[in-house]
UniProtKB/TrEMBL annotation:
<dbReference type="InterPro" id="IPR015421">
    <property type="entry name" value="PyrdxlP-dep_Trfase_major"/>
</dbReference>
<dbReference type="Pfam" id="PF01041">
    <property type="entry name" value="DegT_DnrJ_EryC1"/>
</dbReference>
<dbReference type="InterPro" id="IPR000653">
    <property type="entry name" value="DegT/StrS_aminotransferase"/>
</dbReference>
<protein>
    <submittedName>
        <fullName>dTDP-4-amino-4,6-dideoxygalactose transaminase</fullName>
    </submittedName>
</protein>
<keyword id="KW-0663">Pyridoxal phosphate</keyword>
<dbReference type="InterPro" id="IPR015424">
    <property type="entry name" value="PyrdxlP-dep_Trfase"/>
</dbReference>
<comment type="similarity">
    <text>Belongs to the DegT/DnrJ/EryC1 family.</text>
</comment>
């Protein structure tokens, strides 16, 4: 049997010939056309209870960059640092670096794998005004405590942008879409490999409609009505075609997330020797199944991954190497103490997960894992 790590499943545009014909007839291909507008408004009501506003973007990396720039430019912070967890995807730190900030890479918590609040507090005390922005990652679609960050921002004036790249479909402890009510920008990816799969795309949500209005202007070159730049800008717009993929994905996202949650629970029940993440919300939009190999596994992770590959099972190792181990970030970033990251990253393996995964495939993966560790 061959089991890939992921099987991206954006909706089949070829099944939506009428939508495509209407799109072509509209003569509008980008610039927040009717499909983008319909998607933003349905997403807002379906996922965020109609509170606040959201904005589409061409991908989450550019959306993070835009949101960091907005937080720093309009927040009036002159600091040169951005707090970024080391246990995240490269895009989080790249966004800070493109805004001219130096990432300070900090640790995570041992069970939720969310960014360490102890480290955030300590670094804020040490660097104060020199920290322009904090970029916490909602690790693997787990829920951050947004009140903590709102209070930190209110108390210190620091900018906050949430990297919620894997969280579209996640529900928080109150059962709302993760991000609901956030006073800061929350950035979600709709990349083909994410649970909310399109081709390329992203969403920024904020409870503050004015912030979204500013971001919308920034995403269109910072132009006002007279096409004169009023603020920092770039082109971050989502084209209408991927917006159609997003609009139709909304019809099935609950089914997709729930099917993935069932599969996740089966893995958890079968792999008693592996360590799973502690979840803080009521539903996570699992993109894959991150686990830690047993501490007493007796074989290096690379050997395990190789043996699984020989059995036809592809594993991932997100996020290892973590950022402080990657040459570019080693070069440009400041590295804080990382005891938890250093303990977790070498043991992390991502197990296969996709919408159409069969239970027989999952059983095969679990049996192969037991054999390969023997
Ligand atoms: C996928 C991902 C991104 C980037 O999303 P794109 O839409 O591919 O640019 C950023 N941060 C994290 C943590 C991600 O997993």
């Amino acid at each position: 049997m061959r089991v890939p790590l992921l099987k991206p499943r954006p909706i089949r545009l070829s099944h939506y010939a009428d939508d495509l014909a209407a799109h072509e007839a509209s003569g509008v291909f980008s610039n927040f056309g009717p499909i983008n507008t319909a998607f933003e408004s349905r997403l807002l009501s379906d996922v965020f209870g109609g509170d606040g506003a959201c904005l589409t973007a061409c991908n989450a990396t550019i959306a993070l960059l835009l949101a960091v720039k907005e937080a720093v430019h309009f927040g009036g912070r002159r600091g040169r640092y951005a707090l970024v967890p080391s246990f995240t995807f490269a895009a989080t730190a790249h966004a800070a670096a493109w805004c001219g900030l130096t990432p300070i890479l900090y640790d995570i918590e041992p069970e939720t794998w969310l960014p360490s609040r102890e480290a955030e507090q300590r670094l804020m005390e040490r660097h104060g005004e020199d920290i322009a922005v904090i970029l916490p990652y909602a690790t693997y679609g787990n829920c951050l405590d947004l009140n903590w960050y709102a209070a930190l921002a209110a108390r210190t004036g620091v900018g906050v942008v949430i990297d919620a790249a894997a969280s579209l479909g996640t529900r928080d402890a109150a059962g709302h879409g993760f991000g609901h009510g956030a006073p800061m920008s929350v950035v979600y990816s709709m990349h083909a490999t994410k649970t909310f799969a399109t081709s390329e795309g992203a969403v920024i949500y904020c409870a503050d409609k004015q912030r979204i209005a500013r971001l919308r202007q920034m995403a269109n070159f910072g132009f006002d009505g007279a096409r004169a730049a009023q603020m920092p800008g770039l082109n971050a717009k989502l084209a209408e075609l991927p917006a159609l993929q997003a609009l139709r994905k909304l019809d099935e996202i609950d089914r997709v997330v729930e099917r993935r949650a069932e599969l996740y629970a089966l893995y958890r029940a079968r792999l008693q020797d592996f360590t799973f993440q502690r979840h803080t919300g009521t539903r996570a939009a699992h993109q894959f199944v991150p686990t830690l190999m047993p501490e007493e596994a007796g074989i290096p992770r690379a050997t395990f991954v190789q043996r699984m590959k020989e059995r036809g099972v592809d594993l991932g190792t997100y996020f290892s190497p973590h950022l402080a181990e990657q040459p570019y970030f080693k070069d440009i970033a400041v590295v804080d103490e990382l005891p938890v990251t250093a303990a977790i990253a070498p043991r992390v393996v991502a197990l296969p997960l996709y919408d159409t995964m069969e239970e027989a495939e999952l059983r095969y993966v679990c049996e192969a894992a037991a054999d390969c560790l023997r």
